[in-house]
Amino acid sequence: MDIQDLFHSCKSGDLHRLQYLVEVKDVEVDVRDKWDSTPLYYACLCGHRNIVEYLLEKGAKCEANTFEGERCLYGALTDDIRNLLKSFHVISKHTIRRDLFEEFLRKLLESKQYSDVVFNVHGEVVHAHRCILSARCLFFAQMFKTRWHDRQTVELNHANMSPEAFKAILQYLYTGHMEIAIDLVDSCIKLARQCQLAELVDEVEDRLKKTRYWESSKPGVRVTTLVLSPANSKESLQKDLAQLAHWALPDALTSWVTGELPFEPETIPLTFPDICFEVDNHRFTCHKTFFCARSDYFKAVLQDHFGETECSESLPVVHLHNVSLDVFARVLSYIYSDACDLHPDIVTDILLTADMYLLPGLKRLCGVAMATYLEVSNVVSMIQTSRLFGLVRLESQCAEFIANNLSKVIARDDFKQLVVEDAAQIEGREETDSIDIIDEIRFYISSFVQTYSEMEEANDKLRLIDDVLEELDIEG
Question: Which residue intervals define the domain BTB in the entry (predicted)?
């Protein structure tokens, strides 16, 4: 429903609603409808410059010389919007925040740190990580187990091998996305077939077909770069990298089920761990590259030598305290796959651990999960939790929940106490000063009112708030 609302807002030019959907509801700006069109395309087509600018600032993709970019340019209603598209080259903090996992993997691909294999493709050196390639591609898993076993450098000098095509394949394996010059698409398809990446071959051929068809209907337009962003790319990436987390578990926590994962128990690939974490006398065999890149806490422990490691057998061991096996297993899942099971009985413990391990993304996931457990009886405590851990979105969702259930919440003593505390925090409070929680609730009551009956309902709720403030002898 939110996605349909997003498209409608972009077509109608409702910036206020769009901001609410993106910033509070956290709806993705690059979603596609059944016609393979994005919100940005419709905003350009309908001539809403302010919507176009907002979407670009929030990270909507519109690269020049790509199918998406050329389509938006060609369909833009005004020259003003075309000029905006051509001149906009900003990667904002919002883009990075919304794609933390993809950004982490992109940097991992570009970084040489903890790389344990080097590919030499016709003299061009490419650093990579065996664990990621093995988890993402059965072909690489088999090669690292056989022909490339114990090789630090792999020479790839086949006449038909293109360095750019090989790097594009690695980009897909690391991030789930791919960019390749149109002239090199055939080389990329051949290499993908050799690597047994059938889904990638289908995706590339389908995108190329759509691009060529669109080009033929728009004289003078030429797409030079193929950008591939499959709809299920993140889900596929998370599923594959979750295997690394599963294989890192100690035997006591592992229960193999034949056929459950792409690899059967007897054919589990080598995962090439380089660090071991010990929790309650159980050892997790992991990879420094994931932990250091995702957490400043672990980066300090593993790189800056805080003295918490010891060597045992072939791997250094880090002893972790104040964390249970169950919680660490879920933290492990998040670090590798950006997802984990967050049921009500454990989400608070995971939130505390995420805060301790400096994992802001996991804290936000906890906030998202906690929002689904909102009830009249716990909404005030949820607000307090959101403030303690800096979960701004959760606090907004709590305020929206209260606005929708005002008559039940407003009579509660804990809610009244929260209002009193918020009012007391303003030193030398004047009559015109606002109260945070009251302002938030009023916003959700008053916003998006469209009919007369909705207006009457909103006014009734606002009067309830005024009555409570009068009862508490607070100006608000």
Answer: 115-182, 273-344
Nearest 5°: the CA angle 377, 382, 388 is 150
Q: Is the fold of 100-228 the same as that of 236-361?
A: yes
Q: Tell me the pLDDT tens digit for each residue of 246-298.
A: 999 998 777 544 344 555 444 555 788 999 999 999 999 999 999 999 999 99
Residues 6+ apart with CB under 8 A from 58: 22, 29, 92, 94, 95, 98
**Domains in the chain: boundaries:** 2-97, 100-228, 236-361, 379-471
CATH number of 2-97: 1.25.40.20
- Which residues are registered as beta bridge partners of 226? 180
pLDDT (0 to 100) of residue 265: 46
Q: CATH number of the domain at 236-361, out of 3.40.50.360, 3.40.50.720, 3.40.50.2000, 3.30.710.10?
A: 3.30.710.10
C-alpha 10: how far from chain center: 22
- Gyration radius (Cα) of the chain, Å: 26
Question: What mean pLDDT is predicted for residues 358-364?
Answer: 93
Rounded-to-10 torsion of CA 403, 409, 414, 418? 20
Q: What are the structure tokens assigned to 291, written together?
A: 């932990």
